[in-house]
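Q: My collaborator sent me two sequences in one message, no labels, and asked for predicted structures for both. Can we handle them in order? The first one she listed is below.
A: Yes, handling them in the order given. First sequence, followed by its structure tokens:
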Amino acid sequence: MEKILSRKNPLAMHIKKLGTTRSYRELCGQFLCDGAKLLEEAVKSGAKITEVLTASRLTMTLPAETRVFFTARDLIDSLSPLKNAQEVLFTCKMPQKKALTNIIGTNILLDGVQDPGNVGSIIRAAYAFNIQTVILTGGCADPYNPKTIRATMGAIFRQRVCDAAFSELASLRRKGVRFVGAAPDDACRDISDVQLGNSVVALGSEGRGLSEQVSGLCSEKFKIPTQPECESLNVATAAAIIMWESTSASSG
């Protein structure tokens, strides 16, 4: 096993930049993950793991093409963009981007959700509830931000996630894809009265809600009933309720 002990090592600098710069991730077609548990999930999911940097002995079997390097714990701490860094950092290839087509079942559209933890939690829940696609638009957090990836708890390797420009969404709408939107408006119908299957269900950020463009795509809007004193739900909580409701309705 090769050793890396300097921050100036090319691989160390590459890992550091993957963890901090979205444009660099997209240029390289790679993303950074941390932790032995996440590495196990990547192996189980068949992710293309390129390099592993570890401060402890690994007991799992890695793909033959994966390069493994040993390092000191303090170097791991300096390279990881996350608080409470674990003893393993590893890089994966991004999956090939595919056109946003074949919209069936329930799909979740996030419009301007900028918190990586929320986006990651929604991706995790989407996999749990068998959501076909999580669609990101309007400047959402990068799904390959290390904070997003940690929040997915491994679902990033299994759940289909797509970035989409508004023009792509509008094209789907013209082709007959149904859009519905979540809105904290008393005039909206309750979620239990709205068909969520075979639709793109749109959620906006807590502060702004849906943008005018995305709202305009929605043929119907619904609310999640809450106590009158409750101003709003966290977007990840709202998304989980919506996904559960869509699963419950389809199985009922």
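Q: And the one she listed second?
A: Here it is, processed independently of the first:
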Amino acid sequence: MAFNSGHWTIDYSAKTVTNNDSGTGANLPHSGETYLGEVLDLFKWLAQEFASTSQMDDTYPMASDTPTVFKWLDTWGFGHADDFKYLTGGDITSADGQDAWFSVYMIGSPTAGTQMGLIQAGAEVTAWWDTDNVDILIKVKSGGTWIQSVDKTETLADAGIWLYTRKENDYYNHGYVSLLNGRQPIGLDTSIDKGNQTAGGTVAGWNDITITFGTVSKDLNNGGGSVNYDVVIDCAGRPMTQVYEYLKYITRWGETTLQINGDDGQVYRSANQGVYAEVKVAPFGTLAGTTYYGARGVWVENYLSPDFELIDATGTTQAPPKLRNVVASHSDLDGSVSTDGGCNVFVSEVTGDGGTIIKNKYTVSSATANTITADASIQANRTLQSGVIRVADTQYAYTGFSGSTFTGVTPDCSGLTNEDFYTPLMDRLADATQEVSDNLIYDDNPFWVITSVRRYGTKPYDVYTQFGETGVPFTPVLSNDPQAT
């Protein structure tokens, strides 16, 4: 990069210094660095020109305060509004102080080909600069007024600009710089985001994921109750890995069609801008392995699996409950491969290793046609979210529960009262080689259960095990009973 005086013209009558390509859009720095020069070199060229005998009767055009601070003199100035775009490495003010062009320069290590984006006074400045680290002049004062960036709830300094590096498939970065006092650096490191490598054209097709802003109260069913969030992301049944990549895609630099909370996607920063700490590398939250870590105020729903951790509007971390179940697997469970109609599979909590089934877990306090209310709060960490209620030898199905009441109970249970009952973790006639129960909320406290399989013609299978971190996966080994034929 070297200053080339052949691209500049001095007009002694108009007292202007003009770049020959200025205003044409030609030969800007991204078109070739030979057209870009430092302000210091412009000053040196002018100083040399005006030190010659022929220019002794012309007023001197520019003064230098430091190697990076310069000022037009008399009524000298740029001949065209875009002339400053061909300069780098310093600051210039007009002779009367009414206009100023100050510089910002990037330091750091962005990935190759990263295009810096610039926002000034709430609007994108069309890039004339090259990719990667840049050093440019920005007009920060016009007609005696500083060009101020006021951003939502934030009170920012005069002559402020926002710089963004949001290259697709990389971690993002951004920062605010006040140029009120002249030339300033900004470090905007970036790196490859290994969790965001799907082609943009593919990710764009995942637009069934929707984003809705507004305060909502949500309960993650983790014991924390209902708390507030600022934005709801409907994941459209997709895994969190795809949700993460889509959220990155709609906040990449260049996304100006989609509006996110009143901003172009390319400059979205947080659910409560200026108040919440920003996740610069990914504004809606990050990904580690397959686990999504939401930014503050982000709620997710309708996901494939709860592989995430959230932060509510108060800044409190909210982890989803561990959902675990019972899985019984064996070819002999399938009635289609036997002549006796399959197996009865039963799993239930017991008093301990080798203990008895807890059949009096609850007592019926009241019942309607399709509800049973217990005499105590239902233990979510011991109860399937939907399953079977046993009252003595009678089975009732239920579809949910809340507090002390089971709902969606069938068949009609009107009239039940003062009966002891419990909820097995599996209680069914198997009709498949694998039987899977609904989930319960596992609280990291294992408990003993008995796994039983019964079928005429085989010896009874009764094995004690613990419901733990993996739930209860078991494969019953059935052997023929020669006496039961």
